[in-house]
Amino acid sequence: MITTWSAALPMIITFFLLSFMAAIVFFTNPKDVSAKWFSIFIFMAVIGSLSYFVEIPAYHLFIRYLHMDDRNALYYTHIVVGTLASISLFLTPYTYLIFCIHYSGFFKNWNRYKKAGSAILLFPVLLMYLFFESYIYPFSQNFFITLSLWATPYFLFGHFLLVFGFIKSKNPKVRLQKLLTCILLIPFIFILTITSYWIRNEEINLSGNSLIIFIFQFAVFMFFAVKYSILGVKLTFEKQMMENSMKVLTSSTTMLTHGIKNEIMKISLVTDNVTAAFKYSGQVDENFEMDMQAISNSTQHMMEMINKIKEHAQEITLNETRCSLSQLIEQAVILAQPLLVHKKINIIKKLEEGIQISCDSTHILEVLNNIIKNAVDAMTSDGTLTVITRLETKKATIVIQDNGTGISKEDLPHVVEPFFTTKNTKSSFGLGLSYCFNVMQHHGGSLEIHSKKNIGTSVILAFPKRKTL
Question: Could you tell me the fold of the domain covering 321-467?
Answer without folding.
Answer: Heat Shock Protein 90 (3.30.565)
